[in-house]
Amino acid sequence: MARLVLITGSSSGIGYEMAKVCAAKGHDLIVVARREDRLTALKQEIEQTYGVTVWPYAADLTDAQARQTLFDWTQTLGQPLYALVNNAGFGLLEPFAKTDWEQQNAMLQLNIVALTHLTHLFMPGMIAQGQGRILNVASTAAFLPGPYMAVYYASKAFVQSFTEAIASELEGTGVTATTLCPGPTESEFQDVAGMGELEFFSGKLPTSAEVATFGYQAMEKGERTAVHGLVNNLLVFATRLQSDKALATMMKGFQQPKGSPN
Ligand SMILES: NC(=O)c1ccc[n+]([C@@H]2O[C@H](COP(=O)([O-])OP(=O)(O)OC[C@H]3O[C@@H](n4cnc5c(N)ncnc54)[C@H](OP(=O)(O)O)[C@@H]3O)[C@@H](O)[C@H]2O)c1
Fold first, then answer.
1. Which amino acid residue places its CA nearest to atom 16 of ligand 1?
2. CATH of domain 4-255
């Protein structure tokens, strides 16, 4: 039986490419996102190319009941989950005081609560099986404060800290938890976040396929924190040498939206 992987946020970007990387390794897949048409197209592409089984599952993961229903449905498949890839997430570029609370709350629900809830639902089954993989997608944003994307950066700091802690709890169980930290990457992320005009997102970025391949390898090896790319690793190292205040000032310069007074 092919080992089953569930990937959230698989209708575009890193999650979409992660689905293809996993399929190429022979995994059956559950692909989750809101845009069902994209998931159905992904199923067709993957099943034809790789001969594995793909279950598309349309859900808004900010909804707690939808997450529980997803978990309950997976229990009817008769195939235990080998790996959970908590990839769905989004950011917003805007001065915090001007943000819409509903959007900020949705970000917290998706980036933090959904990831934590799905981990809580699936982890006991993996431990009982004596094997499993959890891959939580954070960001290099996890390592520093991010003015004008304050909630997003803080949400990724949560993901990194949470995943490192459960990875420690999981030692000796056969289950591992890995944090994937991409830097700026080609995907729909920038458009969704309204970051299109920022200079540090211009130029040639790594592709989602490159990041997904790197993340899959780190997950399979059971690495704890996997930062993608040399420049990002240097950046993360440099954050250890600076005060949070200095880092916030630097990021404020990089991320200041056009027309923002300060
Ligand atoms: N791209 C970057 O520069 C970058 C850098 C560091 C970290 N990351 C992280 O990488 C992860 C993947 O992002 P990406 O770059 O691949 O961006 P993306 O192309 O925008 O993909 C985001 C995915 O999340 C899904 N999603 C959004 N809201 C959802 C919801 N309420 N319920 C279920 N699924 C939802 C989207 O699908 P639907 O819209 O169909 O629901 C989509 O499949 C995110 O956690 C992001 O924070 C990205």
1. 13
2. 3.40.50.720
Q: 152 catalytic, yes or no?
A: yes
Q: Could you read off the pLDDT of 28-71 as tens digits, one per residue? A: 999 999 999 999 999 999 999 999 999 999 999 999 999 999 99
Please report, for the chain, the start and end positions of each structural domain, with discontinuous segments joined by +. Answer: 4-255
Of the listed 50, 152, 153, 216, which one is catalytic? 152
Contact between 62 and 118 (Cβ < 8 Å): no
The alpha-helical segments, DSSP class H, found in the chain are: 13-24, 36-50, 64-74, 101-108, 115-129, 150-169, 189-193, 208-221, 230-239, 244-255
Ligand 1 centroid – CA 172 distance (Å)? 32
Q: Is the pLDDT of residue 262 over 90?
A: no
Whether 156 sits among the annotated catalytic residues: the reply is: yes
In this predicted structure, what is the pLDDT of residue 1?
Answer: 66
> pLDDT per residue over 91-113, tens digit each?
999 999 999 999 999 999 999 99
Phi, psi dihedrals of residue 41, rounded to the nearest 5° = -65, -40
Evaluate if pTM is beyond 0.85. yes
